[in-house]
Amino acid sequence: MPNQLSEGIVAGRLPKDDLEANFADLHPPLSGHEALVAADRCYFCHDAPCITACPTDIDIPLFIRQIATGTPEAAARTILSQNILGGMCARVCPTETLCEEACVREAAEGKPVKIGQLQRYATDTLMEAGVHPFSRAASTGRKVAVVGAGPAGLACAHRLAMKGHEVDLFDGREKPGGLNEYGIAAYKSVDNFAQAEIDWLMQIGGIRMLTGRRLGADLTLDELRGDYDAVFLGLGLGGVNALGAPGDDKDGVTDAVAFIADLRQGDLAQLEVGRDVVVIGGGMTAVDAAVQAKLLGALNVTLVYRRSRARMNASVFEQDLAASKGVRIVTNAQPVAVHGNGKVREIEFAYVGDDLAETGETFRLAADQVFRAIGQSLEFEGLDLSGRKIAVTGAGRTSADGVWAGGDCAAGGDDLTVTAVAEGRDAAEDIHRALGA
Questions:
Q1: 3-class SS at 39?
Q2: Is the separation of the CB atoms in 323 and 40 below 8 Å?
Q3: Architecture of the structural domain at 10-24+242-375
Q4: Which of 170, 180, 240, 242 is nearest to 208 (CA)?
Q5: pLDDT digit string (tens) for 26-41?
Q6: Do residues 404 and 424 make contact, with C-beta atoms less than 8 angstroms apart?
Q7: Which end of the chain has the smaller Cβ count within 10 Å, N or C?
Q8: Which residues on adjacent β-strands are paired with residue 376?
Q9: Can you give the residue ranges of every domain in the chain?
């Protein structure tokens, strides 16, 4: 069996038992007693700043009080009425920079209420009971196409179905879920939770899932506009930005999103990883790729970002998690060349100032595997754009009549699962009003 001293990109650097331990649940669920103790720390503020900090406006003090009084199922209904993907968001939201950062306990003691873990406790309790707390309204006779079965599309489809509309939910991949299925670190969402949550969500009825149907290849926007009363685009972002440095096309240089998707869908023991791995980027995807490369058995993993630590999109918690797993973080450096004879052997960086101007100093890192995590772009034409995303106004209205957009593909968001859910939900409400049903 290969080991950490193996050269090049190989599979099976670690024994199966080690891999299972490395990719176990990052935050094991709270027990009933632990949940009660955690809930008891909440002040139940009447002007709770945590609600304002939540992109989906969940009534956090209410659901925590419901947990404290022994009714976690009621707490779950409070959560899910605002965020139908509350279970996944409890696992992947950067709560440390959202609700928990705003918690009064955080300001007073530096130790917030465990809002994310309490949310997971409540939603898991309800889902494990096999209960779907919502029902469909009477049929409106209207039909809506939702393109993209990621967080935005799922939230939009569920809310539209609740309103009594028929929904066809299209996705280009074999499995629905988008980012939740293909783009989240495996240790954040274990036991196939993404698909279990979708199965539970689909219990609302009125939603037809159509996978393997991609806009541009199998569908056109004009066709959808002609066949449906409204269209919602929750496409995500398909294109990955290039390094913009000579040698970017060498073997061993690939996209972090593809690596994470392969890891989520494959056998960890068969997933190939390098000995010397370099990840370029400063967001959540970069951290997820770097940490997982280390957990797979890479000997040296370095994350390089062109700006300072303070400007990384990844939260301080995520940065600290990477460091705790042995990932080296280098800042204020950008790639200038990838070296190697066909295959990457080294990557050269230039140090840069806050204005991204090169200082004249360079350095090289040994690398047999390089992951690009420097942002994605929209692979779609036909609507007005704002920058690299679809321009929207209000609750996701695009430049085309009858077409809405939300999630990562729409301008103005912050590329978080919870924000995508909010945008999908709000677009559904606006579609419902526009249809006059």
A1: helix
A2: no
A3: 3-Layer(bba) Sandwich (3.50)
A4: 170
A5: 999 999 999 999 999 9
A6: no
A7: N
A8: 240
A9: 10-24+242-375, 32-128, 143-238+378-435
Find the DSSP H helices in 41-162: 49-53, 60-68, 72-80, 86-92, 99-102, 104-109, 115-128, 151-162
Block residue for tokens 């913009």: 244
DSSP codes joined into one string, 23-36: TS-SSPPPPHHHHH
Rounded to an integer, what distance in angstroms lies between the CA atom of residue 170 and that of residue 149?
A: 6
Instruction: Report the distance separating Cα 167 and Cα 170, nearest Å.
Output: 10
Residue 322 CA to residue 290 CA, distance in Å, equals 7
- Do the domains at 32-128 and 143-238+378-435 have one common CATH topology? no
Q: Which of 140, 146, 132 is nearest to 208 (CA)?
A: 146
CATH architecture observed for domain 143-238+378-435: 3-Layer(bba) Sandwich (3.50)
Query: Residue 1 pLDDT more than 60?
Result: no
Q: How far is CA 251 from CA 52, 340, 370, in A?
A: 47, 9, 9
Strands 385-386 and 389-390: antiparallel
- SS3 of 110, please? coil
**pLDDT for residue 241:** 79
User: Does residue 143 sit in helix, strand or coil?
Assistant: strand
User: Average pLDDT for residues 244-269, to the nearest whole number?
Assistant: 93
Q: What is the pLDDT of residue 135?
A: 96
pLDDT at residue 264 greater than cutoff 90: yes
Type of residue numbered 392 = V
CB 337 within 8 A of CB 245: yes
Q: Phi-psi region for residue 328, left (φ > 0), alpha (ψ -120 to 50) or beta?
A: beta
The 10 Å Cβ neighbour count of residue 363 is: 12
Bridge-partner residues for 358, per DSSP? 352
Burial class (CB in 10 A: 0-12, 13-18, 19+), 73: middle
Task: Give the helix/strand (H/E) hosting 48.
Answer: none
Does 6 score more than 90 pLDDT? no
Which amino acid makes up residue 401? D
DSSP string, 272-328: EE-SEEEEE-SSHHHHHHHHHHHHTT-SEEEEE-SS-GGG-SS-HHHHHHHHHTT-E
CATH number assigned to the domain covering 32-128: 1.10.1060.10
* Cβ count within 10 A of residue 55: 21
Question: Which strand (E) or helix (H) includes residue 195?
Answer: helix 193-201
